[in-house]
């Protein structure tokens, strides 16, 4: 994991509750809506996200082994709330990019500082 478990607990309890309301409207942020693979419960997870071509790239700030990432990979799809829209996304794929290429310079610098090099790419669904 890139960020500590202690930080993850704090973010889940405090930051995500606040950011979860703002993220769908803030540039560079969004909310992934996914279903628990074991519980079947619906979840909403604030993420750092960028549109790339016909899809989106999500920075995996806690690495690829988080519950929400495993839920999306297992389901093969999710929904993204971004800039006031809800977009259905499919074909999730985790990849590593040590150079963080294709991201805006300020974001690339911050992600480098925190050692984030794992990303999730998703394609926009043609259904709907």
Explained architecture:
With 128 residues, this protein is an alpha+beta fold. The protein has a single domain, classed as Pnp Oxidase, Chain A (Roll), CATH 2.30.110. The protein is 28% helix and 38% strand. The chain is built from 3 helices and 6 strands; from the N terminus they run αβββαββαβ. A 6-stranded antiparallel beta barrel has the order 1-2-3-6-5-4. The chain starts with a helix and ends with a strand. The model has no long low-confidence stretch (mean pLDDT 85).
Task: Provide the succession of SSEs.
Answer: HEEEHEEHE
Percent range for β-strand residues: 35-45%
**Span between N and C termini?**
36 Å
By CATH, the topology is Pnp Oxidase, Chain A
Report the count of strand segments.
6
Question: Which strand order do you get reading across the main beta sheet?
Answer: 1-2-3-6-5-4
Number of helices: 3
């Amino acid at each position: 994991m890139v960020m500590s478990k202690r930080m993850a607990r704090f973010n889940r309890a405090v930051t995500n509750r606040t950011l979860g309301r703002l993220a769908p409207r803030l540039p560079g942020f969004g909310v992934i809506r996914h279903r628990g693979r074991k519980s079947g419960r619906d979840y909403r997870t604030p993420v750092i996200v960028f549109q790339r071509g016909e899809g989106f790239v999500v920075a995996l700030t806690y690495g690829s082994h988080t519950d929400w990432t495993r839920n999306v990979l297992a389901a093969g799809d999710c929904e993204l709330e971004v800039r006031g829209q809800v977009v259905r996304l499919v074909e999730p794929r985790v990849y590593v990019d040590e150079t963080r290429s294709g991201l805006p310079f300020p974001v690339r610098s911050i992600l480098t500082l925190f050692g984030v090099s794992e990303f999730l790419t998703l394609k926009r669904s043609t259904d709907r």
